[in-house]
Specification:
With 235 residues, the protein is mainly alpha-helical. The chain folds into two domains: 73 residues, no CATH class; 127 residues, Cytochrome p450, CATH 1.10.630. It contains nine helices and six strands; from the N terminus they run H-H-H-H-H-H-H-E-E-E-E-H-H-E-E. The strands form three sheets. A two-stranded antiparallel sheet has the order 1-4.
Length: 235
Amino acid sequence: MEGFHSRIHRSGQRRADPEVLDHALQLYTYLSEHIAQRRANSGGGDLLSQLVDLKEEGGMTDAEILGLCFLFVLAGLDTVTAALGFSFARLAVDNELRNKITNDYSLIPYFIEEQLRVDPPVPFAPRVITEDVEVAGCPLAKDTDVLVSYGCANRDPQVYEEPERVHLDKRPPHFAFGRGPHRCLGSHLARLELRLILEEWHNRIPEYSLAPDADPRVPWPNGTLGLDAVPLVIG
């Protein structure tokens, strides 16, 4: 748990919230107990049992399984929340855009893709150069560690027309979920969550606006880009 505490602190360069650490410890304990139970009673059909029973390359250690379980539980939690914050912040100030998706829910998937393109919750991702290459006049040697800026790629004016705007009539590819073999495994679930939430919200609350004194900001530095708050006026 001490190692987990240090990773939280380093990832955001801010002191970890004691309440967050308490919840993390509870989750750590819960998962550790279930891993121990599966070790003692192998052969189950659930995913955790299958991870415990793996034999290839010596199988997985408890620490490896625990890390994977943390990923299963937490992956997409902050990113989907951040995407919703950006979505409501945009719709709250753009009545025309909000009315379009409220009157035609078939446009919501298009809105989601474009909103993710313009304001991706994941700002960058680490990658390794696989061969010597030159990008925009900059030579990059094989095996060099780089950070791919999804935000810059998603707003490239050579690829996207009016890259700062959300277009409901277009659905070009984007980098919000990454690209290639390391693309986000949870992208389909994230899209489903975003679509259902936006549909149900606008079915119940079609009219809303940003509070007069609201000033949504993105806390920085942080591993995920998200607004600190989006105060709304309903109706």
